[in-house]
């Protein structure tokens, strides 16, 4: 049985519970249970390696003590335990002692967690299903946590409206392979979601460079992430534990955009940023004031691009997933792209095919690769094709990492092909920094893609709105000056 099917069946059990109202509560209920189970599995590994290991969770509250036995407590006894012992004690877990970081982590996880279920019998059914069907001790299955989140997003149908999309494993793996992080390089995902980019980077560095315990410690200290929403933040924290980050307190629950750009210093800058920031969504009023006047907008993806350029060290590398609208947008987007090409070497844009983020959105997307410190002289484009016989991706035919082998082979020995072409910076300036440059080898379509036209319309409407606002301010200032 697939993990998605298991999660769906668990939520079907929860739907019978009168205390759980809606998918959001069902998912919240599921996630704290997953955390405790995975945390307990990880502690079992640590106990084998260190006979002096002591859990920060009191013994009666550990998953193994009350949940692991299928014939364990159930009904009113289980419900009373969860409501009067488990949650109150974990929310107030003492941070005194040598393992205070672990205690703080567990306490913060449960600060925003709730037990919504009213039936201890149904809760026992959910717990037994988790014990039976979900086992992440096999390292090959650890990326399946992303599948859980993918199922979460399908159930929370409104999530896509905020530009929140699960990044396919193939995309994160390809980006990590091309960026090739080294041991000791600081790495940040400022909109980390469930931690897909971070997990891939951890595996890559560990496989290539970690040889001694001190190497592992250096790796763990170099990984950083920030996530605004509670649910993906909790899933990311759990994901980091699955990937051997014992105390992932460097995964912060915060909005990276809420800090004024001028407050960042050299101490905040990093060697590598890999991210898929939310796109298509708008930030709350006032967030744009944290940015310089020339780059103020409420569009989330654009603000993240400004932030990325600020947070990279000189020589720092980035891979970022962005929609087509960023490439062809005008107004503030033009100024943003000019700054990007002036301050950074945008050496590669991989144009992804339609449907990569289906079913959440049909917006066309790209992976931009750049380095900070030298201006762009030319941009290489690579149009990623569908596999032979595909017209789109689907649940049964997802994007696979093997599809990127041609790009990997082309990467170090670049030449123009039917999939790859190069555009000089002079041509880009003549286009007023419109980076939406089509493959010259592609057959011309009689009609432009409707989604592209709609996206362009939205961009032009937003630009017109911005101009109207500027005119209104100019006229208001002029009238004030006459009084």
Secondary-structure topology with pairs:
Blueprint: H1 3-15, H2 23-49, H3 63-66, H4 75-91, H5 100-111, H6 120-133, H7 145-155, H8 169-179, E1 187-189, H9 196-209, H10 213-222, E2 223-227, H11 230-242, E3 251-253, E4 270-275, H12 300-311, E5 312-323, H13 324-328, H14 332-343, E6 344-351, E7 365-372, E8 378-383, H15 405-411, E9 420-424, H16 425-430, H17 450-482
Parallel strand pairs: 1-2, 1-4, 2-3, 4-5, 6-8
Antiparallel strand pairs: 5-7, 6-7, 8-9
Description:
With 483 residues, the protein is of the alpha/beta class. The protein has two domains: 3-135, Up-down Bundle (Ferritin); 144-459, Vaccinia Virus protein VP39 (Rossmann fold, 3-Layer(aba) Sandwich). It is 46% helix and 12% strand. The protein is built from 17 helices and nine strands. The chain has helices at 3-15, 23-49, 63-66, 75-91, 100-111, 120-133, 145-155, 169-179, 196-209, 213-222, 230-242, 300-311, 324-328, 332-343, 405-411, 425-430, 450-482; strands at residues 187-189, 223-227, 251-253, 270-275, 312-323, 344-351, 365-372, 378-383, 420-424. A nine-stranded mixed beta sheet has the order 3-2-1-4-5-7-6-8-9. Strand 2, helix 11 (230-242) and strand 3 (251-253) form a beta-alpha-beta unit. Helix 2 (23-49) crosses helix 6 and helix 2 (23-49) packs parallel to helix 11. It starts with a helix and ends with a helix. Mean pLDDT is 86; it is low at 157-163.
